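Forwarding the complex inputs:
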Amino acid sequence: MSPKRVTIKTIAKEVGMSIMTVSRALNNNSNVNDQTKTKVQQVAKKMGYIPNHIAKSLVQRKTFTIGVVVPEIAHSFFQEVIRGIEEIAYDAGYHIILTHSAESFQREQLCLETLLSKRVDGILLSVAETVTDFKIYKELIRLKMPMVFYDRGINDIGISTVGIDGTKAAEILTEHLIGLGYMKIAHLAGPLHLSIGANRRQGYLNALKRHKIRAKKSYIVEAGLKEKQGYEGMKKLLNQTKKNPPRAVVAVNDPSAFGAIDAIKEAGLRVPEDIAIVGFADDIRSQLIEVPLTTVRQPAYEVGKVAADKLIKHIESKTEAVEDLVLNTELIVRKSCGWSKKKN
Amino acid sequence: MSPKRVTIKTIAKEVGMSIMTVSRALNNNSNVNDQTKTKVQQVAKKMGYIPNHIAKSLVQRKTFTIGVVVPEIAHSFFQEVIRGIEEIAYDAGYHIILTHSAESFQREQLCLETLLSKRVDGILLSVAETVTDFKIYKELIRLKMPMVFYDRGINDIGISTVGIDGTKAAEILTEHLIGLGYMKIAHLAGPLHLSIGANRRQGYLNALKRHKIRAKKSYIVEAGLKEKQGYEGMKKLLNQTKKNPPRAVVAVNDPSAFGAIDAIKEAGLRVPEDIAIVGFADDIRSQLIEVPLTTVRQPAYEVGKVAADKLIKHIESKTEAVEDLVLNTELIVRKSCGWSKKKN
DNA sequence: TTGTAGGCGTTATCAA
DNA sequence: TTGATAACGCCTACAA
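Prediction (whole assembly, four chains):
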C-alpha cells in the first residue's frame, strides 16, 4: 500500500476546493452543488481514491463491524451459524470479525478484549464450555456494548439470547419413545454443568414424570458429548442394568448416540429391536448410518440469522428489548427408535 | 459504549504525566522508568482502560487484520479452510474479517473494496465462479496489497496461490481404475470453463493417454457440480453408450457421483459390479453411503493454514517470493471402484 | 453551498 | 527517562 495514498486532501487540492466539500461530495451529501459533486466523484475515481474507514470509524465511533466469538469452529453447527450471521450482517451493511475461543475461558476473554479494542459495534457470542465466571459479560453490559448470546447463553443477566429449548426438545424426543410404547427408557446424559447437559436431562425427566414413569438412577449415566464418551457411557449403562436393561436410550447428542450404538452392538444386541435409541442435533451422518438415527434438528443457520438480526436491532436502537428468542427444533423420526408397539 | 471512555489522555491526567509516557508504559516500551510503568499500568487497569486499535491503526497504518473472501460459505470445504486460516492468523496475532462473494463477480468486487477501505493488512481470496475479469486483482497488485489465492486462483499474474493439483489428482484416480483392470472408463465432467472442471477432465485424459487407451467422445459428458446434475449426466451417459456402456466412471466430484449412482441403480445396474465409480472431494457422506465411494481427499484445513501462513509472510516481508503452493491430495480407496481384476 | 477550526485516540519525532 | 507537537484521514460544528 505504498504509492502515496490518495486522501480527500489530495483530491481537494486537485479540484481546488476544501476538504469538506470533497468529503461531502464523496458521501453523497445533499448540501453540495450537483456539479461539484459530480466533478469531485469523477476526480476521486480517476485518482483511485479508496476511502479510509479507519479514520472514519475513529471520528464517528462506529465501525459497521460485528464481532463473533465461536467456541468450536470445527463444529458444523457453528459453521452454519456463521453462515446465517454473515447473511444478515451483509444485508445490513455490517462486516464480521471472526474470533475463536476454542472452548477456553481464557481465550474467550482475549477474543472479547480484542473485539472491544477493535471497537466493534456489537458482539455475538456463544459461551465456551469452560466458562464459569460471568464478570466479563457484566462488564460488557456496563460498557453498553450491544451483545447477543447465541446457542449457549446465560439467562437473566440482561443480554438477549437466541437458541433452542433443549429441555422441551428432549422432552418431545422422550415422549416420542413413550408414545411408541417404551417404558424402560435410559438417558445417556451430557456434562451436567453445561446447560445443554442439564436441560436435556431435565426434558427427559419431565417426559417420564408426565407419563408417570418412575425415573431410575441406574438408568441415567453422565457421559460426555463425544462419540467415545457415548460408547463408554453405554457400556457402563449396560453393565449396571444387567438385571433389567433399558429398552430405549435417549442420548445427549448424535455423536454420543453413535458411540452408544457401537457399545450396544458389541454387547450382541440390535438397534432398535433390542434397544431403541435417539440422539440430538441431527448430525450429517445420522441419516446415513446403518440404522438411521432418530434425532432433533437444530436450526443452526436460523440461529445465526436471528441472533445477527437481534444484535443489529440492539446496535441501532438503544431501546430494543432484551429478550430470549427460542427457535423451534424439529423431530426427525428415523429407524433407530423402532416402530413396534410392543409394550415393554 | 457511552460512559465517557477512558483514553491515555484520561490516564495521563490521573497519574499526572504526559500522554506519551502513558502510551509508552502501556505498550511496555523499554525506555520508561519501571515504577512509572507499573503505576501507569495499574491505574489504567483500575480505570478500565480499553486501548483503541482504531486510532492505533490509523497512525501506524497497520490493522493486524486479514480479509478473507469466501465464494461459497455454505460449502464445508470452505468452512474448513476458514478454520485453518483462523488458526494460523490467531497464532500470528492477526484477526479475520470474513466476507462472502456468493460466487458473484460483482459481490466479490464489493468485498474487495470493503477490505481495502478497512485497511486490512492482506487478503486471502478464492475466485468466485462468475469472475471473468482480472483487472481488480492487478489493481490490488499495483497497490502492493499482500494477497494469496487459495483453492481457486489465477496463475502468473504475480499473486501466490495455494491449492491442490486437480489434474494430477484426477489422473491418479483414473489410473487407479486402470490399475484395477478397467478399460472402458467414462468421465462425468464439470463445467469446463471452471478450472476444476477443465483440470479434472485433463487428468482423466492424461491417464488414458499414458496407458494408450483411446478417449471416446461419447464417454465424456459435461454436467454440473451438484448431485442432480450428476444424476442427469449419468442418465445421458448411459443413454448414449447403450451399445457399449462404460465399466467405470470418473465423476467430477462426490455429489456428482452420488447422483450418478442413483442413475446407475435406476437403470438396474449395480455399483461396482456393473459400473464402478469414483468421486472427487471426499464429501463427509462418501464413506457412509451403501457402497462407500472411492474419492480424493482435499486438505481443506491445510489449504487454509498454508494460505494464511504464506499471506502473513507476504505481509511481513516485502521480499517474500510469489509462488504457487501445491498441496497433496490423498486417494481414498473404498468399495465403489471394485476390487475385481476382470479385464474389461 | 462552501469553508475553517478542532478533534477522534494514538504514535513518531524531536527536544529537553 | 520524559514531554511537546505534529501527524494519521476523516467528520462535526459552526461560520461565511
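The longest strand of chain B covers residues 65-70.
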